Write the structure tokens for this entry.
Amino acid sequence: MPYLFLVPVLLLFAVFRFYPLLEGLWLSFTNARLGRPAYQWVGLANYARLLDDTRFHASLWNTAVYTVASTLPILALPLVLAVALNRGVAMRTVLRSAFFFPFTLSVVTVGLTWLWLLDPVVGPFNYYVKALGLPAHSFLADPATAMAAIILTTVWWVTGYYLVIYLAGLQDIPRELYEAAALDGATGWKSFWAITLPLLKPVLLFVFVTHIIGSFQIFGQVFVLTQGGPGDATRTVVQHLYETAFQNFFQFGAASAMAWVLFALIAAFSLVQFRLLRGHEEY
Amino acid sequence: MKEPRAHVSRRRFLAGAAVGAAALPGVVRPAHAQRKATISFWNGLTGADGKVMDELVSQFADQQGIRIEQQRIPWADLYAKLQVSVPAGEGPDLALIHTVEVPHFASDGVLEVIDDGALSSKGFRGDDYLPSTWQGGLYQGKRYSVPLDVPQHILYINPKLMRAANLMAADGKPKVPGSKDELIAMAKQLTKGDVFGFAIGTINPGKYTWGFQNMLWQNGTNVYAPDLKRSALAEPAAVEVAEFFGAIYAKDKIAPPANASCRDAFIAGKLGLWLAGSWNFTGLREAKVDFTVAPVPKIFKQPTVWTMPHQFAFPKPKAADPAKRDAAWAYLRWMTDHVAEWTLKAGQISASKKSHSDPRITGDPVLRTLLAQAPNWQGGQATPKWVAAENLTRPVIETVYIGQKPGRAAMEDLARQINALPD
């Protein structure tokens, strides 16, 4: 009987999630193109084509670089800020709101703001760079710095969100544990390593897994800031997929194959993460 | 003191009104005769031209009693939305699209064929239009759209920077380059500190495929070979154009970086010669920027001017609705008759020749220059793959612009990608 309560949600899930997922899988084995009335079964041809698609390879590499390079700042910076705010610093509520504010903005607003901030000719960032006597630099147009600029933008955008999650986790840790540790002489770093970090493990796992999944799916920031450029230096898998499906001749079959490759990668990484970080600390 | 009001219940009032209406058949017309269709109109006029369109649509509604519900979506998203929604029967009654979109929408069955009878009965004749724009509505001998206007390139000049760089002609006007070498020499003279001599494109000059296409056409070549089967981009004429793109930024540093906003740089007085779209000039005037214009200079073999006319098209409806179609035709007719207002306010030369002799248009120095370019106008090739090829071009031309790839290798790679597009 209780399962009946699940029916509405399961129905919605089946219609809006599961069916499209299966439809996508089917399309990945066809030469479907939106607008073409009929399409044929092509077997693994779309997957085989990905082996020769150098732009797909570049987008996979860029996605991996973004994921790896953004993980540490996105995990660590909000944690540091959360620990600081949890200690009762002055204007805690104001600071918490200030840090969270960027996350209330849409990705397009964030992207356009940073696009202007980093503009090489009229942007304020380069104005101050020049004021310091340094040469102006086009961060988003240089293959060496474009990805770093995207990571910086993302860190600025999402730090507040993860900070709030960390704060919730920190406030869940019983104060008595710190008091007991202090009696045993463990304060500062020692209590952080021995109490805070182990007890934050479930929160860390959540942040880590959601960040990795989100990183594999990064699209908005790249699309607004660089459109994958310069060249293909910041092109990511989802952007390549989107362009294949909606801009380059509506190749739904080929794009579906990319989506399934991405899905497999995300599923594999998520499984590994759960295995590595499973377990729950009890004191 | 208030006068006592006689109380009339809502039910009694409605009943009385109904009896009254029935008793006065000559006064109260049947509802269906009063009802005018409401039509949906999708377009990508997201800039200042959108406000002008709003104004005209509202004037049309006041005069004709036909309501137009506009959806304004950035062009790229608009095209994706049309491709998805029309087959599902959820498309608009009318859409404004670019000429280069006609072939793929036509071949995918998104647009309805406009038959010559309907066209002439509504007063639309090819002779009233500039030929290249009228031809743009045809695909494989059938008409799918009716042209509105001609967005095109023009050369914007900052006279202050030109004066400072001693680039004034004997008549006191800024000099206009007449060749590639002259352009580069002038741009070098203009480039100083954070001021750049030359740029092509509104924003992201590194990705500005419309500028690349303009130069291809000036050099007598195109994206596809004349048979439209294979790309011509690996050929020497296209490679030469790609190398020019590499020269202006990566080699000579006379143009802004790949992702700079050329428009902002020009407004800020940091750009001397700016080859960009005609859609920018009304904004420059509003911003009170000191500028002058000249026709697109001959940088390669011929002074070809890039154009991409806007066209009105009827997306295929789920079921025919003659009232809505008539209302859409009425709007097209009205807009064509009032196109001078559109030209004056939105800054786009009309495809219809009717307004070209309007003294308000011929008296405007920018509109006059745009009109004078008409003999040199060229548009994209009539292949369904044109837009996909353009999307593939964007990142490749950027790699050349920033010096990441030499022109020849980039063009060979691009031609390979374009040739691999499915049929």
Summary: Chain B has two domains: 35-151+308-378, 153-307+380-419. Chain B touches chain A at residues 76, 80, 83-84, 87, 104, 107-110, 194, 196, 204, 206-207, 256-261, 264-265, 268, 270, 384-385, 387-388, 391-392, 394-396, 398-399, 401-402, 404-405, 417, 421-422 (CB under 8 Å). Confidence is low (pLDDT under 50) at residues 1-8, 13-33 of chain B. Residues 396 and 422 of chain B are 19 Å apart (CA to CA).
